[in-house]
């Protein structure tokens, strides 16, 4: 990473899944299966309906209500966050499941300014993915879901309070920050706090996959750029050409 940074250089806050790599290909389906198995076990232990339809409904409704299924399981079933995250991110061969843009490390290097990973994924998983695709050294800081806490409770994206606390703690001027994401609701929250926003669309899942994993965002082809999105691009590789619109 380039240590000689101007005070006017942007500060990039990069999402991980479906932004820096194609999580919809294999990882999200595997996470959904893992989540369902864990949720079914929790519901069964509490004497609640735990058939496939009940489990799917539980997972999706919590994601829509809280922005993360984890919060619903913590708030309504008192599960331990670490237990849920560990079970949801069990993979037989994670590296074989990862797909990403060719030359991504070179593309990131071209972008001026400091880069921070800001992901609703857990620390161990994020670390492993970045190591495998060779991006670890490009990020000055990692902020996984475990670090997104307000008053001791996990508050993941799109929590505006969490984002506000993060900016204050890291002394990040909102006007210099750019959130790069595939999920528009997270971009909207960031824009309301004064951040610039870049929407990455190449890994967005089709309608069927979105029903299984609602966190994968909206289908890009039929969706216009929302007013709170400064730049809509297919890939991270196109960000450099859009720098003038992000300053």
Description:
The protein has 247 residues and is an alpha/beta fold. The protein has two domains: 11-23 and 98-245, HAD superfamily/HAD-like (Rossmann fold), CATH 3.40.50.1000; 27-88, no CATH class. It is built from ten helices and eight strands. Strands 3-2-1-6-7-8 form a six-stranded parallel β-sheet, with helices on one face. A two-stranded antiparallel ribbon has the order 4-5. Strand 4 (149-150) and strand 5 form a beta hairpin. Helix 1 (27-45) crosses helix 2 (52-66) and helix 2 (52-66) packs across helix 3 (69-77). The longest helix is centred in the first third of the chain and has 19 residues, at 27-45. The model is unreliable at 207-218 (pLDDT under 50).
Produce a short descriptive summary:
This protein is α/β, with parallel strands linked by helices. Helix content is 40%, strand content 12%. Helix 2 (52-66) crosses helix 3.
Largest β sheet strand count, sense and barrel closure: 6 strands, parallel
Mean pLDDT: 90
Query: Can you write the helix and strand succession as a string?
Result: EHHHHHHEHEEEHEHEHE
What's the CATH superfamily of the largest domain, by name? HAD superfamily/HAD-like
CATH architecture label of the largest domain: 3-Layer(aba) Sandwich
CATH class of the largest domain: Alpha Beta
In the CATH scheme, what's the topology name of the largest domain? Rossmann fold
Overall 3D shape: globular
Distance between the termini: 21 Å
Oligomer: single chain
**Percent range of helical residues:** 40-55%
Strand order of the largest sheet: 3-2-1-6-7-8
Percentage of residues in DSSP E strands: 5-15%
User: How big is the Rg?
Assistant: 18 Å
């Amino acid at each position: 990473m380039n240590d000689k940074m101007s005070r006017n250089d942007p500060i990039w806050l990069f999402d991980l899944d479906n932004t820096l790599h194609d999580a919809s290909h294999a990882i999200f389906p595997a996470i959904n299966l893992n989540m369902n198995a864990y949720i079914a076990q929790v519901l069964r232990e509490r004497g609640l309906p735990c058939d496939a339809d009940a489990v799917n409904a539980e997972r999706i409704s919590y994601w829509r209500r809280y922005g993360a299924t984890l919060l619903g399981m913590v708030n309504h079933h008192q599960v331990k966050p670490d237990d849920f995250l560990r079970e949801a991110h069990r993979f037989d061969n994670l590296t074989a499941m990862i797909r990403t843009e060719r030359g991504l490390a070179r593309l990131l290097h071209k972008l001026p300014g400091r880069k921070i990973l800001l992901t609703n994924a857990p620390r161990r998983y994020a670390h492993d993915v970045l190591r495998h695709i060779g991006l670890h050294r490009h990020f000055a800081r990692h902020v996984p879901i475990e670090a997104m806490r307000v008053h001791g409770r996990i508050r993941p994206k799109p929590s505006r309070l969490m984002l506000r606390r993060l900016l204050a703690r890291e002394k990040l001027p909102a006007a210099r920050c750019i959130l790069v994401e595939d999920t528009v609701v997270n971009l909207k929250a960031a824009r309301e706090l004064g951040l610039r926003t870049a929407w990455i669309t190449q890994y967005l899942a089709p309608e069927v996959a979105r029903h299984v994993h609602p966190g994968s965002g909206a289908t890009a082809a039929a969706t216009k750029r929302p007013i709170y999105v400064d730049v809509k691009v297919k890939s991270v590789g196109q960000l450099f050409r859009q720098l003038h619109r992000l300053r």
